[in-house]
Amino acid sequence: xxxxxxxxxxxxxxxxxxxxxxxxALRLVKAGQRVLIxxxxxxxxxxxxxxxxxxxxxxxxxxxxxxxxxVAVPWAGHAELLAELxxxxxxxxxxxxxxxxxxxxxxxxxxxxxxGSAAQQAAALLPESRVTAAFHHVSAPLLLxxxxxxxxxxxxxxxxxxxxxxxxxxxxxxxxxxxxxxxGRLRNAHQVEALTANLIAINKRYKAHAGVRVTDV
Amino acid sequence: xxxxxxxxxxxxxxxxxxxxxxxxALRLVKAGQRVLIxxxxxxxxxxxxxxxxxxxxxxxxxxxxxxxxxVAVPWAGHAELLAELxxxxxxxxxxxxxxxxxxxxxxxxxxxxxxGSAAQQAAALLPESRVTAAFHHVSAPLLLxxxxxxxxxxxxxxxxxxxxxxxxxxxxxxxxxxxxxxxGRLRNAHQVEALTANLIAINKRYKAHAGVRVTDV
Lengths: 217, 217
What we know:
Chain A has eight helices and eleven strands. By secondary structure, the first copy, chain A, is α/β, with parallel strands linked by helices. Chain A has one domain (about 10-205): Rossmann fold. In chain A, α4 (about 80-85) packs parallel to α5.
């Protein structure tokens, strides 16, 4: 299936100072993408950007300057941040990769989300953005490991806007070893987010950085 | 990780006349497992068994005669059947592979289940059984295709009883190409069941029989 050329797009990563955000930034920069790391303060965003060869700034300014905005913040701050950035995100492709999980002594479990999933919450808060969901299962330690040249993982991309989803699939495919697989509408995002709890259980049991490959595609 | 020897166990498949049940029966028989196919009537169970080289009977009698009981019935009949078979299933390893899905003109979606998942419903109805969940994502057409010698798929096995889960993992591993990966407690079964909706969406988009492989394990 033909995917669009996304090499000229600017990608912002909100919450880009966390491991997942920095790891994605690092891999996208290496692939030749222009990446902006966003944080609460411009200084922190710039500092995190400098670490991985990206630019940086505060969340609002990087969101305004980008074509594609990856949301990699902790679930606890998800709704508040997106509500604040509604104006900056109008017309943008938003990629939600937030996993609403709880942890107790039995390990991780999926939290109930009123809107159904983090991605659907984003879509509800950002009615004028093109909301997709992806990159839920990408291991931050592998992304950040300089010894790992190729990521053996498929990225499940969800979205009701197929063209926006294709852009995100193409972005995932720029990272060596990674594929972007369209995996359904946003109403089917919950289980993809929640599957991260299973991958964490697998990681603990098998001492692995588990990811997912879709077979026969 | 060492898995137990399950070659001497008898496996019953409830709802074994459906495509998924017959497909699993066929592959397990080929692997040398003793398999009993259950159906509402003994005649139908025996007829379906004869097709794939298995024995057969009514659901209650095959459940009573087996060590491991795979539940492959439609979601609509799930609770009723398990409630009826509670006595026969005491002490048995029960493997729930039911996916509670709805379908509308936008395709498949996960149904809300009061207990959290089909597997948790089974555990609630069968307090004296060893309930696990597995085989959700196995493609019936591939299982039944005589040209497909090896299944390129991992089976995610869930269960609070680790020994029971290990038996199910070992059973999955008897089928060429298949691995059984422990993937968490029953409270994390919902997303594994629901992921079948995403695989159906993938199948439609890519004209595939999609399955899942866990990487780095």
